[in-house]
Design brief:
313 residues; alpha/beta; seven-stranded mixed beta sheet; 10 helices
């Protein structure tokens, strides 16, 4: 069975293993060996083993120093445990994501809104617990080797304390943007994507436009050398979903009625995982629109009803 994983060089010492989740690879040859730092890991054991096989085939005697996790979702940190046990590497992440990685029950509880039903406690939504050895701070410069640095950049929105990782190799820079943005091929297929905080996500998209790099690698989808167009496409998807929800609220609706409208209009058949993930995202949109004064709620007959706010002339 092929996994489709492929190493793509981006600079002399920076590359990417392209797959369902793009994995950043930072290298430094030393005494016949290759020191490695990874940006994220895949969610399954099979994919993680395949990733390591790709790296072993590409680099002489790879020695994994650390995994730099952008955030705590299983498709970005699910392979941490296997790689740490096999190589003795350390794990780095931001403070907020560290808590979630060390107590992954919170992942599904956040989506569900309480103690989760077992049907959503899958490897796609909940990774194994993982201790974080180093807490990353926004904007710090971490020297990995001579003229080789890594800089975490705070990009909350998709998740609570997510960070991009900007890596410089001499005068070249590559930015691993995690789920702060989606590749053009992905956003066209999945127009509505999971968001924890929609307002923060929009702010992070605008922040991404100002990140200077020669290449930008989204967590999912094709990498680009010019980020502005991709930011605009992602922002368009968010604004269109906002408008869809506002249009639906010409009459008061419950949360589940709004979720049905969003799913129906995007032709999304909701199974239990999609119901919870997209439902959580819709709640984030409602919070954002409410904070901006564009919608309001009322409790009527023990139901929370949402409605559009008509602007005052």
């Amino acid at each position: 069975m092929t996994t489709g994983l492929e190493y793509v060089p981006l600079t002399e010492r920076i590359g990417c293993v392209a797959g369902a989740t793009n994995i950043g690879v930072i290298t430094e040859p030393r005494n016949g060996r290759t020191r490695l730092w990874l940006v994220d890991t895949p969610n399954t054991l099979a994919l993680t083993k395949s990733l390591w096989s790709v790296l072993q085939a590409r680099f002489p005697s790879p020695e994994l120093v650390a995994i730099i996790n952008t955030h705590s979702h299983a498709d970005h940190c699910g392979g941490n445990g296997y790689l740490r046990e096999m190589t003795g590497c350390t794990v780095w992440a931001t403070k907020g994501e560290s808590v979630l990685m060390e107590l992954p029950l919170l992942q599904t509880a956040l989506v569900y809104g309480g103690s989760p039903i077992k049907d959503i406690e899958s490897k796609y939504l909940k990774a194994d617990p993982c201790t974080v050895d180093r807490v990353l701070c926004d904007g710090e410069t971490i020297t990995l080797a001579e003229e080789l640095t890594a800089e975490p950049i705070s990009l909350p929105g998709h998740y609570i304390d997510m960070a991009a990782v900007r890596v410089t190799d001499g005068d070249r820079a590559v930015c691993f943007l995690a789920d702060g943005i989606s590749g053009r091929n992905v956003i066209k297929r999945y127009w509505i994507q999971y968001l924890f905080d929609e307002r923060a996500f929009k702010s992070s998209l605008l922040k991404i436009k100002d990140i200077k790099a020669d290449c930008y690698v989204p967590g999912h989808g094709d990498m680009v050398t010019d980020i502005e167009g991709l930011v605009e496409l992602n922002l368009l998807a968010v604004l269109e979903t906002e408008a869809m929800i506002e249009d639906a609220l010409a009459e008061p609706l419950t949360f589940e009625e709004i979720l049905k409208v969003v799913a129906d209009r995007n032709q999304i058949p909701l199974k239990v995982s999609q119901f919870e993930l997209i439902g959580s995202t819709v709640r984030s949109y409602l919070s954002s629109l409410h904070a901006e004064g564009r919608i309001a709620y009322e409790i009527t007959d023990n139901r929370m009803l949402w409605k559009k706010v008509t602007p005052t002339p």
